[in-house]
């Protein structure tokens, strides 16, 4: 039972690390899947398979080689010199991603709480700074609470969408996008999210090191991510094209279900953004500490201030510009991770 409990914590942390600002708000699902119309559901299945396979492989590799940070993983995959350069690039990418997360929190405050974009940025920054002092245990705990709640309320939105007039739109929705762009999209999505998840999943694999719990957690987490992607796609498809007007599409749909559901869902969207931001900055700070000999407190503060400055560009523009570009940069990492066969056989689930 303890091993199953540990597997669930791993799964929830995996889901919580991927389900960030873009995912929880619906912008990521729209960008990578829903805009491709009826191809979206099949593309989600491809992404789910990649999450299960490579998420498991990443954590098992981290446990095997005793990798404490994503730089150790990149040196293993690319060699010492190239691995160091890849890690430098990933530091830049992660700073951009965390800026998107913080901007997403600002959009929640301005679009749904009427408290102002800057207020959202500052409140999230300070909350993140204080929670990060608790380390990995805080990340595991907060994801174990927030992710199940998010899954429950996403299911409510799906049920609402499937009972509405656009229930079957995900099967008939047309797209002008090229087939090449459509089939590259799940690869870009998985490559980007898995490479960014290294910041949390590599230290997690090293800390737990139980191969059965890690593999089971990766399967549960990968399938959970796929289920939430599909739920978001079905919901957004039913409201196309009107839902395109929102910076936070899922929040706009939740408003139509009812006031109580809307407020609870907006709170959960914020918490999902917050948990991913906390996890990513934790991993980024560990990596920076190997290069810059400052305390975690000062490094965390410096990262948050950078993200605050970048967040002034706004959530929508940052996500639609940076995420596809970062996905392209992550494809090489995805291919090498998939081809790495240096692990010994592992026990079954």
UniProtKB/TrEMBL annotation:
InterPro entries found in the cross-reference section: YkvI-like
Stretches that traverse the bilayer: 36-56, 85-109, 115-132, 139-162, 182-205, 217-240, 260-285, 297-315, 321-338
Keywords, alphabetical: Membrane, Transmembrane, Transmembrane helix
Superkingdom, taxonomy of origin: Bacteria
The protein's name: Membrane protein YkvI
Phylogenetic placement of the source organism: Bacteria, Bacillati, Bacillota, Bacilli, Bacillales
């Amino acid at each position: 039972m303890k091993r199953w409990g540990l597997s669930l914590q791993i799964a929830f942390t995996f889901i919580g690390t991927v389900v960030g600002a873009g995912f929880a708000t619906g912008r990521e699902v729209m960008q990578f899947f829903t805009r491709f119309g009826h191809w979206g559901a099949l593309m989600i299945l491809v992404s789910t398979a990649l999450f299960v396979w490579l998420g498991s492989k990443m954590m098992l590799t981290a446990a095997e080689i005793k990798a404490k940070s994503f730089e150790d993983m990149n040196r293993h995959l690319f060699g010492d010199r190239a691995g160091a350069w890849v890690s430098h690039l990933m530091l830049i990418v992660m700073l951009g991603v965390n800026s998107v997360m913080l901007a997403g929190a600002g959009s929640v405050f301005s679009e749904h709480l009427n408290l102002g974009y800057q207020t959202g940025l500052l409140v999230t920054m300070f909350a993140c700074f204080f929670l990060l002092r608790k380390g990995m245990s805080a990340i595991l705990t907060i994801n174990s609470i927030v992710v199940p709640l998010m899954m429950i309320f996403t299911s409510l939105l799906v049920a609402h969408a499937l009972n509405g007039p656009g229930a079957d739109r995900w099967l008939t929705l047309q797209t002008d996008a090229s087939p090449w762009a459509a089939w590259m999209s799940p690869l870009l999505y998985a490559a980007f999210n898995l490479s960014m998840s290294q910041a949390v999943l590599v230290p997690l694999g090293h800390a737990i090191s139980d191969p059965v719990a890690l593999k089971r957690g990766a399967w549960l987490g990968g399938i959970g991510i796929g289920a939430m992607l599909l739920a978001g796609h079905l919901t957004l498809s039913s409201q196309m094209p009107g839902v395109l007007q929102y910076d936070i599409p899922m929040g706009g749909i939740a408003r139509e279900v009812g006031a109580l559901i809307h407020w609870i869902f907006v709170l959960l969207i914020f918490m999902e953004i917050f948990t991913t931001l906390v996890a990513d900055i934790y991993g980024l700070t560990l990596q920076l500490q190997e290069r810059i000999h400052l305390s975690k407190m000062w490094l965390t503060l410096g990262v948050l201030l950078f993200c605050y400055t970048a967040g002034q560009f706004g959530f929508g523009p940052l996500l639609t510009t940076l995420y596809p570009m970062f996905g392209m940069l992550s494809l090489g990492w995805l291919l090498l991770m998939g081809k790495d066969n240096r692990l010994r056989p592992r026990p079954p689930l």
